[in-house]
Amino acid sequence: MLGVALSLPAFAMDDIVLQPLELPSVLSATRLKQSPAEIPGSMTVIDRELIRASGARDVPEILRLVPGMMVGYLLGHRSNVNYHGTNTTEARRMQVLVDGRSVYRPGLATVDWTDIPLAVEDIERIEVFRGPNTAAYGANALMGVINIISTPPELRQGTQVRITQGNRGVNDLYASHGFSLQNSVARLSLFAKEDTGFDFDDDGKDYRDSRRLNAFNLLGETTLSANQSLQWQLGAKEGSNQLENDYTVMAEPSDLSFRFDREMAEHEPNSDTTARDYFAQLHWKNDLSPTNRLEVKAYAQHMERLAQWRACDSPIVFSPLLRELAELGNVYPRRLNYILRNRSGAWGDPAFYSDYLVRYDGLPPDKLPLVDALVAEHQAARDGQPACWDLNENLRETRYEVEVQNTLQLSNSLRTVLGGSLRYDEARSDTFFDGRVDNQIGQLFANFEYRPHDRWLLHAGAMAEEDRLSGFSFSPRLAAHYFLRPTHSLRAVYSEAVRSPDMYENNANWTYTANNLSGPVSGSDKYYALARGPGDLEQERMRSRELGYNGYFSNLALSVDIKVFYDEISNMISQPLQIVNFVPNNDSFSRFQGAETQLDWKMSRRDRVRLTYAYIDFVATNRLDQRLTARNSGSAAWLREWPAGFESSLIYYGADMLNERRFERLDGRVAKRFGSGTNNLELALTWQYRLDDEGLTWPENLYENRSHYYVSAELDF
Prior knowledge:
Elements lengths: L1 H6 L5 H5 L24 E5 L1 H7 L4 H4 L6 E7 L2 E6 L11 E4 L2 E2 L20 E8 L3 H4 L6 E7 L7 E9 L4 E11 L2 E12 L15 E15 L2 E14 L17 H8 L6 E17 L2 E15 L1 E6 L6 H9 L2 H10 L9 H11 L7 H14 L5 E6 L2 E17 L2 E16 L5 E19 L2 E12 L3 E15 L2 E12 L3 H5 L1 E2 L4 E4 L12 E2 L7 E14 L4 E15 L15 E14 L5 E14 L11 E10 L4 E10 L7 E14 L2 E12 L16 E10 L1
Parallel strand pairs: 4-7
Antiparallel strand pairs: 1-6, 2-3, 4-5, 6-7, 8-9, 8-34, 9-10, 10-11, 11-12, 12-13, 13-14, 14-17, 15-16, 16-24, 17-18, 18-19, 19-20, 20-21, 21-22, 22-26, 23-25, 26-27, 27-28, 28-29, 29-30, 30-31, 31-32, 32-33, 33-34
Helix pairs in contact: 7-10
């Protein structure tokens, strides 16, 4: 940074005040329109050109272009996106917005990337604030904010049809039509997507993780007057995601000479999930004066995840003895599962009981007869049929939010944005919550930007939030910029952020209701396992320090951003969301320190090069938070426009450790456009080649070969 500073010549006051700078601006950092050099933090903007060049069918794959962003997969249709990492199965600590509407699920603290009713073809750009931003967007923006912004309908009039097909079952269809009616412009988009996910698991068995979805999105803008406009949007999505049986069996088959084991081995139901999403959104803007804009945004959304199947297990899962054992500690049913699988001859081995249950797991010796009785009860039932019943993991989540925002230019050197919001969240599930849980959240926010001198820009922002389930929180941010030139600045940022426990973590009441129960069950029909949230979890808290440089070299068409950071997260809730061994607490801690950089260079009229790199040194007290952080990760992209309507891109992605697995991939895309103006046809081939030979995030996420390709034909008229 010092070298850059010394190499830049001095500039006069008029350079900042009088000379217009045609630079891209962003809105997602502080809610104020800012140039990259003015942002109080690190920002990555993935524009339309990059999105197309990536060839990506899904947003998580696009986010591999963001330095420090860790992308993993639990299943082919279930991706996990985390900034700097932490848990591999839940993405709990980033706010994700689509045109300002939060798609962060309130019930299970995650984002269903597959089920967002917005096509990649309709994305104009993605703004990613890399770092805590609770000061602008409230709790859950703990480690960053991703704002996915749609292409304005006035920029996409006419009709577009796109078909994509390839190996791994890729079969996508997209169609849109832009039109105008009096003082309104709008675009209707219809799209469908299919693929088969991973091919097989680490045992060589077929992997049931395919997906299918259909969706529509209608986006419009109406001019109400010379200074007022109304943007309106609605959409819906329906689809299904394949899943193997999601029920954890207490007694797995181990000896097919018994009827119980034979019928259990033959019982292989699926627990596929049906997904439905609906939303409607309004955004009113009123320019009260050239220095004052008032905005009101309101939306309603509803999400459904429905899964129903018939489960079978040993009758002991309804035994009061097993519930008594589970209430002594979650570890004991797991040990019983080990015993019933007869691992290492554990059946009836008193040494195993005393060594593992008493000595290592702390079971009171006087409770050993419970284990003996359960083993005997299961053994007596093995000559008969298993207990079977209908269960579901249905979950319905609803959100309503209204937000008011006022942007003011108070003077030539001071401007601010002030506002507040009210939000209502509700989750309904007889399985997860024994009914319904709801929450109300109120927010007040303010961000100030003050320029006391030509070379200095000061920023202060804060969010005050009242959460009925989690209490009050206050999240401040302070930043200072020193301008070496109008487009070159050094920055120092300090911020604090929080994340509120989600409804499941704090208010879970998860057990299975035995509907249509059959089999040798006597007495109770109450399932033994119960995952209950403590109800008193505190908010996670983060303190972040950042030093950085942002510069744009106009003579080279080169933009550079460098960041060094030190982040600490305390009160972390790191336990997985599961019915067995669910013991959420605030005992975990993580620390991240390191450096990131991104470089975007328009080398010539036809060539563009983009490089990213992140080095992260981390400490995590919970082993689950150590899995999705790569010490070294990055990307390198080369985009080129060739003569005769050809264009190409070549992108390398690499991470040295994602859940203890290396990830390296080379993506290429070649496209040819025929025609000109509003009537044209584009043919494109996208090819992805894995340079490593490891499972993607998990050992069972395997493909038959390293190559993945798909071709697309796009017609505009």
